[in-house]
Amino acid sequence: MLKPLALPFLLSTLLLAWMGLMVLSCTAKLEEVSLDCDSDACACGLPSPSDDTDRPPRHDVARPDTDSSPCHACLEPGLTLRFFDLTVTEPRVDGRTALPDFLNRIWRADVCAHRLNIMLQVREVTENPDGSREVLFAAGSGWHGFYEDGTLVPHELEDVLEPANCDETDPAVTIPDAYYFVEGFTTELRILVNTDCSFETIEPGDLNFHPGPIGTALICSGGDPDIGLPRDTIPIRQLTASGQLNDTCTRISDADLQGCIAQDAACKICSFALAPDYATWSYVPDESKEPVNCQASYCQRWCGAAAWTNFGGFVSTIRLDLACAADGGATNNGYQIAGFWEGEAVSFQEP
C-alpha cells in the first residue's frame, strides 16, 4: 500500500512524463513535410497550410525589369536605316537563277553605288505587355546630298552613274553626307521587334523602289494612280520582312523579304537594258509615241529612244509564272520577288 506522501510524487512523475511525450510528438509533427488539420498536428498549435491567421504579413517585392533588350533603348523616332546590300532570289523560271542573277547584277550595283536607296525610319514605338515593341516605320526610297555651308545640297543623278561596278575605294564613287526620303515614294510598315532584337512585319505592306531623285530615275514608268503605281517606280506589294537588329540599332543582318509585283504594274515599268552601265543612259520622254502596255512603245513614250526594255513584256516573253496575289486575294496576279538584305544606320537630313 502506498504511503500518503508517495501518491503526489507519483502523480507529478506521470504528469511530467505525459508532457515529455507531447513535446516529442509535436517535434515529430514539425518535421513532417505536410500538415493536415484533421491530424494531431493541430493539437500542437501548428498552423495548417491554408490558415494565414497567425502568419506574419507578406511584403510585395518589387519585380525586376525583365526587358533587358538593349536595342529597345535605341529604337527612337528619327532612327534611319538604309539597305546596303540586296540579293534577289526570286523570281525564277523553272527553278533557274538566270533572272535573279540578271536583277542582282543591276540592283546590287545600284544599292552599293547609292543609286538605289531603300530606307526605313522609326516614326512611333509602342511597348507591348510581353516586353516586345511595335514600331511604325516610314519605308521607301531615298536620295542624298552633301553639306555646303551647313545646308544639305542634293546630288544630281549623274553624280552617281559611275562606276558601273561599285567599289567604294574607287574615287569615282560618291559617298553621301546624309539621306532623305524622296517625296511621294514612302509608305508605312508596322514591325514587331522582339526582346532578342529579332524583328518581323506585323502585316503585309508596300515598298516602292525609286532609284533616283525626284523627277527622274533609273527606272522609268508613266505611273498609274488607278493601280497605285507612282511615277518611275517598282512597286512591291504584300511585302513581308524579318531580320535581326543589333544592340545599338546601327545594323540589320540576316534579313529577308518577300513581296509581289502586279502584272498590270509590270507592263508599265521600263528598265535600262544596259544597266548597271549607264554611260549612254538617257531619259527623254517622246510625247509623239502612242504607248501600249507591255510593249516597247510604252517605254518610247515615257522614257525615250534609249535602250529601255518593258519589264512586263520581258517576263511575259520568258514565261514567268504568276506566283502571288499583289492585292492579297485568292487569285495570283503578280510576279513573286524575294531576297536577302542587310541594312545600316545613316544620317538623315531634309535638304
Write the layout of secondary structure elements.
Elements: H1 6-30, H2 70-74, E1 80-90, H3 98-112, E2 118-127, E3 133-148, E4 151-154, E5 178-193, E6 198-201, E7 205-209, E8 219-220, E9 234-245, E10 251-262, H4 263-266, E11 270-272, H5 296-302, E12 308-310, H6 311-317, E13 334-345
Structure description:
With 351 residues, the chain is of the alpha+beta class. The protein has one domain. Helix content is 18%, strand content 31%. It has an 8-stranded antiparallel barrel with strand order 1-2-3-5-6-9-10-13. Strands 8-11-12 form a 3-stranded antiparallel sheet. Strand 9 (234-245) and strand 10 (251-262) form a beta hairpin. The longest helix has 25 residues, at 6-30. The protein is globular, with a radius of gyration of 36 Å. The model is unreliable at 1-66 (pLDDT under 50).
How would you briefly describe this protein structure?
The protein has 351 residues and is of the alpha+beta class. It has one domain (70-345).
